[in-house]
């Protein structure tokens, strides 16, 4: 198969990995079955795509490796999974790159409770695109018009809210002049329709999956208008290494009215797999090689895993502000994938 890399090359120097007993290899499960190194992967709750994808990765690695056993376990979300990674109760975890930047730089909540361990990026897990919509009857056309508006920038506690607010901090108004609402995703459509909110969110996953609540939103609010991002605001965002965003074609992000625009800027909440920096390179190399060689099997657990067969997807949106694990760099070099220098 043309896309396959040489697994022998990845394993040539490994010997018997189960006997290494290195930090990051023998996880909280202790010794694995038959001498395998046991690892724990934490993502999110059982009803999420993130957890289902981790289940698939664990099953495929366990089937194809004689030396590694991964246990995929549900958790309360990305922030908790990263705390468990730091404490050694997990060996692989995921979070968005903005939260990871705050972790690595002791920002926000991590100023008072910093991590004890250094974390490093491995591969791009998936991303969530975010837009803001209003009704055509309002005077809001771009994010610069949001001063004085009642806005739901995603539910409280979500990574998407943090990313949206960070994007809006680059707009030409003071965030303190915007009323931040605390609505759940299922509440946004009625709030917009009834005038309790001036702007609410639209999200997509990997720019292809539209959540059911978003579909319902556009069946309730027929005159929804996608709020624009002026060029000067986008330029400022693009100079900020801590956040991501992209222009997406209107034909691929259907639902709201774009007016005469053929594309618009959407925020990207980029979720990445992380390990502690001490994670053994040979173990991580084997995991990445098995993942790359068996993407078709991974899609049986969730269709979003199909993106992992694209070189540019695996590495292209990694943050230049956070270190990448050496094993991941070697893997990207082997498959010919570009990645940001960090």
UniProtKB/TrEMBL annotation:
Zinc recorded as keyword: no
Domain of life of the source: Archaea
Keyword Translocase listed: no
UniProt cross-references to InterPro entries, sorted A to Z: TRAP_TAXI
Organism of this sequence: Halorientalis regularis
Protein name: TRAP transporter solute receptor, TAXI family
PANTHER family reported in the protein's UniProt record: SLL1037 PROTEIN (PTHR42941)
Keywords: Receptor
SUPFAM superfamilies cross-referenced by the UniProt entry: Periplasmic binding protein-like II (SSF53850)
